[in-house]
Design goal:
The structure is a single chain. With about 80 residues, the protein is an all-alpha fold. It has one domain (about 1-80). About 50% of the residues lie in helices and about 0% in strands.
């Protein structure tokens, strides 16, 4: 991890669900975008991940934890 400048994400002792939302997101993006993809450059991979998050995941993909709304729709519906 040090070689790539990454910071480890470790749950606090006794808190099993500390990272559950991010782990769920990582599983989803791997299943829906990464597996089977053939990126030719790191830049292409970054662009595809950005497009997936900003143009699909946040705006169109329904989330069961958000009453089957996209994050954007949920914010519109429940923000004051």
């Amino acid at each position: 991890m040090k070689k790539y400048g990454a910071v480890l994400s470790v749950s606090r002792k006794g808190n099993l669900y500390d990272n559950a939302l991010m782990e769920s997101f990582y599983r989803t993006i791997k299943r829906e975008l990464i597996h089977g993809a053939e990126f030719t450059t790191p830049e292409q991979a970054r662009k595809e991940v950005f497009k997936y998050i900003e143009l699909y995941y946040n705006t169109k993909r329904m989330h069961s934890s958000l009453h089957y709304l996209s994050p954007v729709e949920y914010e519109k519906a429940y923000s004051s």
